[in-house]
Amino acid sequence: MKAIVEAQNFVFNANYVNPTRLNSRALTSSYDLTVAKDTIIAYLPYFGVATVAPAYGSTEGGIKFTTTKFTYVAKPGKKDGWNITIKPTVKNISDSRDVQSMYLNISSDGYASLQVISTNRDPISFNGTIEKRPEKK
């Protein structure tokens, strides 16, 4: 676990969502956050209150973006875990314009929680697991 966190080479697989104003629920589809040295790819659902409506006719919901402009800070956490802060630094890249920061707490045994703070939406958090990012073929 330590090697993939320090190498920024992992995928957070979300299996449970905790919206701010709604009931928590298990996720029945595949959602994830992929972290690499040069790219962050978010494909996560969103349940909650947004203060700005999506563009008319838009079918995109959730937290979905790809960015190569971000800061990544990993600090030691509790019981050999890690606390990671990810902040997109360029706005208007796909849907990342709304995401201010992401806080990922990873345990040494691969369990993790992710909190997403957005400009125009209530905060939302996810529980899931961490695994090594698949090799590209």
Largest sheet: 9 strands, antiparallel
Q: Structural class per helix/strand content?
A: mainly beta
Percent helix, as a range, is under 10%
**Unreliable stretches, pLDDT < 50, 5 or more residues?**
92-96
Mean pLDDT, nearest integer?
A: 85
What is the overall shape?
globular
User: Which radius of gyration do the C-alpha atoms yield?
Assistant: 15 Å
Q: Output the helix-strand order.
A: HEEEEEEEEE
Terminal CA distance: 23 Å
Strand order of the largest sheet: 4-3-2-1-9-8-7-6-5
Give a structural overview:
Strands 4-3-2-1-9-8-7-6-5 form a 9-stranded antiparallel sheet. Residues 92-96 have low confidence and may be disordered. By secondary structure, it is mostly beta strands. The protein contains 1 helix and 9 strands, in the order αβββββββββ. It has one helix spanning 2-6, and strands spanning 10-19, 25-35, 40-44, 63-67, 70-76, 82-88, 99-106, 111-118, 124-132. The radius of gyration is 15 Å and the shape is globular. The two termini are 23 Å apart.
Top keywords for this entry?
mainly beta, 137 residues, globular, 9-stranded antiparallel beta sheet
Describe what is shown at a glance.
The chain is built from 1 helix and 9 strands. By secondary structure, it is mainly beta. The radius of gyration is 15 Å and the shape is globular.
